[in-house]
Design goal:
Blueprint: H1 27-36, E1 48-54, E2 60-68, H2 78-87, E3 92-98, H3 108-123, E4 127-134, E5 140-142
Length: 149
């Protein structure tokens, strides 16, 4: 009897050439890039968690939405987050989520999640450069700028 198994295939197909990728040099630039690419019809409705995937030159390879949830929170599965980071061969990430309420302060849950992701990233030699909180006006809070990353 022949044993049959599924074949697993992983692909990453960039559509833009690297010379056209924006280079992130500050939290304000990262926040602007993400905000410009956020669905403005939903940013004030529910929380979403996204990652900005970066190469070794801090150029943006892409943005990936990890989850979207309710009005006051969203769940983040670290296995999915790191599957995307590893599949895209990213060396650094910027974590981003929105607060539909307009509150710019991170909750304890936000801080705990950031620590958990950073710990796992350290093990995989992936840098977590920042965690941004965006609000519907485009203003942001940066964990790195505030020294709590």
């Amino acid at each position: 009897m022949e044993t049959r198994i599924n074949e697993i295939s992983l692909r990453y197909r960039p559509k833009l050439k690297a010379e056209h990728w924006p280079k992130i040099s500050s939290s304000s630039l990262a926040a602007r890039v993400v905000f410009e690419n956020w669905d403005h019809n939903t940013i004030a409705v529910y929380e979403s968690f996204k990652i900005l995937l970066l190469n070794n030159s801090n150029k943006v390879k892409g943005i990936y939405q990890i989850s979207h949830g309710g009005i006051t929170g969203t769940l983040v599965d670290l296995r999915l987050l790191f599957a995307v980071a590893l599949k895209s061969l990213s060396v650094a990430l910027i974590l981003v989520h929105n607060h539909p309420s307009g509150t710019l302060r991170p909750s304890e849950a936000d801080k705990n999640l950031t620590r958990k992701i950073k710990s796992a990233a350290d093990f995989l030699d992936i840098k977590i450069l920042d965690h941004l909180i965006l609000i519907p006006t485009g203003d942001y809070y940066s964990f790195a700028d505030e020294g709590i990353l």
